[in-house]
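Q: Protein A?
A:
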Amino acid sequence: MATMTMRVDDADAKLIRKFAKFEGKTISDFIRDAVFNQIEDERDLAALRAAIKEDDGKRYSQAEVLKELGL
């Protein structure tokens, strides 16, 4: 398993420790979750931008969707 080091000032370290404790997580788990949440958010935003770019403006009513699905 790899080890990564992050440098923060004392005030930021105190805040990170406080939030990790509040969440009931180790500092490593808290930071890992924060990093992966950020990565997921960036990927979601990229997917949204791509979907908006491809959107042709066509919309379907609830009745049309239900009919298409045979419901």
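Q: Protein B?
A:
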Amino acid sequence: MGGIFITLEGCDGSGKTTQVDLLKKRLKELEIPCLVTREPGGTPISEKVRSIILDEQNNSMVWRTEALLYAASRAQLIGENIVPSLNNGIHVICDRYVDSTLAYQGYGRGLNIDDLIAINDFATSGLKPHLTILLDIKPEEAIQRFSRRKTDRLEKEKLEFHQRVREGYLQIAKKEPDRFKIINALESIKEVHEEILNKVLSTLIN
């Protein structure tokens, strides 16, 4: 594949979406060919799945169903957009990927990690990011951020859930230090952006 695959991860409230938007704008200014997308979503089919997953009325959703829906949305995004872009030499920046499932449905929900890895290996055909940037923030700080806006079904979970998710992310990153770059999400938006940009450009250039 000619393109580089980069993902941004982090707990809800870490500022991921803001940073993805800033990164997209900067890469466009630098005339670097890039597809910026998100999970769940990114295609018409995947966006429909996203609406089901995040709908706060779907409180009866079984956790295995939740995990499978994420995988289904991911498979569509990869097959329709990500792999074709990479094959054409276009770099891909994705807001969330498999690590989100491991952190949220694995560590957060308590589903078997090996089962989740197997499901997502099938959904992604084993595609892994070249670089993953993890915006780290304590759940107590994150909740203060996203509680100011309309929250979705997962954001409404209790503090203990978000604490498990954060711990999950840190454990995942610890196992793959070469792929993960951890950034303190409590720094200013500009500082976080500059750190992300430097790491992304270093990966794209090298």
